[in-house]
Amino acid sequence: MPGGLLGIESLDRVEIEAILDRAKYFQPQQAEGRKQMLRGRMIVNLFFEASTRTRTSFEIAAKRLGADAISITASGSSVDKGESLVDTLNTLGAMHPDAIVMRHAASGAPHFLARHLPTPIINAGDGTHEHPTQALLDARTILDRRSSLEGLRAAIIGDIAHSRVARSNMYLLSKFGAEIVLCGPASLLPVELSKITPGVTLTHDIREAIRDADVIMMLRVQLERQHEAAFSASEYFRFYGLRLEHMGLAKPDAIVMHPGPINRGREISSEVADSQRSVILNQVENGIAVRMAVLERILTN
Ligand code: NCD
Fold this sequence. Notes:
The protein is α/β, with parallel strands linked by helices. It has twelve helices and ten strands. Helices cover 38% and strands 16% of the residues. The longest helix has 21 residues, at 280-300. Residues 53-54, 125, 131, 134, 164-165, 220, 259-260 line the site of N-carbamoyl-L-aspartate.
């Protein structure tokens, strides 16, 4: 992975396992990071789309390892003045950062950048395509509670069509032999997904998806990627919102995940989001450990 991290699809199991193991080592309050293994290195976070968790945790991860981290968002940068992506990137490249973490609304934007710059690029979410560090932190969170991903039944529910989180998780979980059920309304559930990835089935029925699930992964409806919303919030919640009454269908020790930001009363009820089953804040916590592992691997290989 010396060239960066663009997606889960192109990673093999050995690489994924190495990152997850190393993230475990960084977990307890990230104490090990105080060894400052990235002292003197510079990481640029370039975010062309909104972010709270991902941007902050990349920044904290870099700092815990002793690196300098600066964050640039599209608003307030020269992108607002009409600068093209290539010119912005060449400008940043000329400052010789050791890595660029990038989020962009266009699928493939980080791959394009990786072809043009010698700097390692880490994809922090590209359009509807991939969000590799999210899938890694999700896997870390599941493995904190289960010995293996093999044979696990994971239901991924919501706006599958526009979700890079769903894609990266699907690639990762299927590489480790999990059974994946994708669930959502027809307009948000592309049929071809079940054809390209082993272990994936589709359903429009949330109850069928949740039945016997070990992991229930809820997704936000990505209104920013749709021309017009096909449902009102209450209609969506009625058919695809996760509520306490659904939980009895899942395995007794099933966990509820969500990459955030959550929309209470749209895709998940507050009772479930705040319940003992919810590991949403554990995911956030693991985001730092996983990103420490990724940064260390890319910058010290
Ligand atoms: C996700 C994203 O940006 O893809 N958020 C995140 O990184 N935790 C999911 C979302 O925005 O719904």
